[in-house]
What we know:
By secondary structure, this protein is of the alpha/beta class. The chain has 3 domains: 70 residues; 255 residues, UDP-N-acetylmuramoyl-L-alanine:D-glutamate ligase; 135 residues, Protein-Tyrosine Phosphatase, Chain A (Alpha-Beta Complex). 37% of the residues lie in helices and 19% in strands. The protein is built from 17 helices and 17 strands. A 9-stranded mixed β-sheet has the order 2-3-1-4-5-6-9-10-11, sandwiched between helices. The radius of gyration is 25 Å and the shape is globular.
Amino acid sequence: xxxxxxxxxxxxxxxxxxxxxxxxxxxxxNKYIELGEIMKTISIIIGKLAILAGKVFHRGSSLPGKMVLxxxxxxxxxxxxxxxxxxxxxxxxxxxxxxxxxxxxxxxGYTVCFNEAGANLKxxxxxxxxxxxxxxxxxxxxxLILEVDERYTKEVFKEINPSHLIxxxxxxxxxxxxxxxxxxxxxxxxxxxxxxxxxxxxxEPYLRHFGLDLPNKNIHYAIExxxxxxxxxxxxxxxxxxxxxxxxxxxxxxxxxxxLGKYQCPECDFKWSSPDVIGTDLDLESGxxxxxxxxxxxxxxxxxxxxxxxxxxxxxxxxxxKEKDIIKSINNHNHNKNIEFIKNNKLYKALNCKAExxxxxNQNVYKVYLDKDLKxxxxxxxxxxxRYNHFDVSWLYDIExxxxxxxxxxxxxxxxxxxxxxxxxxxxxxxPEEKIVIATSLSEIxxxxxxxxAKKVYGILNFDYMEPFQxxxxxxxx
Length: 478
C-alpha cells in the first residue's frame, strides 16, 4: 500500500473521505486500480478500432497510437510484454537490421511483435503493441522487436524496459533535429535500464562509450581486415579521433571505413579487443562474409550491409539459436535492395543513400571511388525528409566528394531541389566545372546519360529518387 502515499491525488482524496466509513484507504485503492484497468481496456479497444479503420481508409500506422496515448498516456507501461524485448536503434540501418532479425526468428518458430511498417516514434510503437495485445493488455507473441528512432529511445526505454538493445551506429545525422552525436548518446545513456544487454560493433571506438560509461553487459561484433581495408585515413570529418579514456589521438592498424577498424591508444590501455562474433573474408562483389567456415549473405554490396548482418547474427546467437539455422535463414532473406541493370551495354546502379547522413553518403562515394572504370554519377533528391520541413544542407560539407575528382569521372549530375547547393559543394571539391551538369529532374539528363561515353552510371540517391531512376533509365519490359 505504500505506493498510495506517493500519489498526491489519492492522498488528497483519502484525506477528504477520512471521516466517511465507506471509504477506507484499501477500498479507495482497489477502486483506483479497477478504474485504471477499465481505462486500459477502453484505450486498447479504441486503438484496435482505429487500426481497423486505418486498414479500410489506408491511413498511416501512427494515428491509432496517437489516439490511444491521448486517452491514456501511460498505456505502454500497463501492457504485459514477453521476456525478450529488443530495441534496435542507430543513425542508419536499424530498420533493415530489425527486419532481418524478425524474419529469422519467424523461420525458426518464434512469434514476433514487430513494427514492420517502419513507424519508429512513440505513436508507431504504441500502434504496434496495441495491435498485438489482447483486451487485457498482454502481447501474445514470443518476442518484441522494435525499431526505434534514436532520439525517441528515451521515451520507449522508460515504458518498456528492453532486455536487449542493438545500436547499429551513432553518426552525424539530420543536424537540425539531432544536433550532434554526443546529445544522442547522452539521451540513450541516462534513460537505458541497467539490466539491458547492449550489442554494438567493437570496430567503432565511439560506441565503446556504452561499455565505459554504463554498467550494462556488452556484446560485440567486428569485421576482420579485408581487401577493402586501408592503412591511411582518407576521410577528414570524423566522429572520433581521440581516445575515450585519456584523450590521446588514436592509432590504427587498419581502417575498414572512416573510424571503423582496429585501433589502439598510444598513451593508455584503450584499444580494440577480440569480439564475441567476427566476420572474415568480406567480399562486396558477391555480397558475402564468413562466420567461421560458413558463408553468409550480407544483403547487398556495401560495408554497412555487412555490419548490420553481423549485428543481427550476434543477437540471434545470444538468443540461443544454432549458427547453422541462423545462417540458413539469413541467406534466404538477406537480398540486395539496390537497383542494378544493364541497358545498351551500359551498367546502371542506383545506391539508396540516406540524405543528411554524411557517413552513409561517404560509404556510397567510397564505393564509386573504388570503381576505376569511366563513369557518370548522379546525385540528388526531390525532398530531404518526409518527416521534417527544413532545407539544411550543412551535411554536404562533411561528405568526401573529393574522392570523385579523378580521371574515372566522366560527368557528375546535380539533380533536384538542391542542384545549385550540390554544385557549389562539388566545386569546392575541385571537380572541374565542365564536368558538372545541373538539372531539375532525371528526365532532363536522360539523353545525355544514354549518349555518354561512360560505360557505368552510378546514382547516389535519396529514397525519393530510387524508383524514378529505374523508371527513367531502365528498358521497358515487353
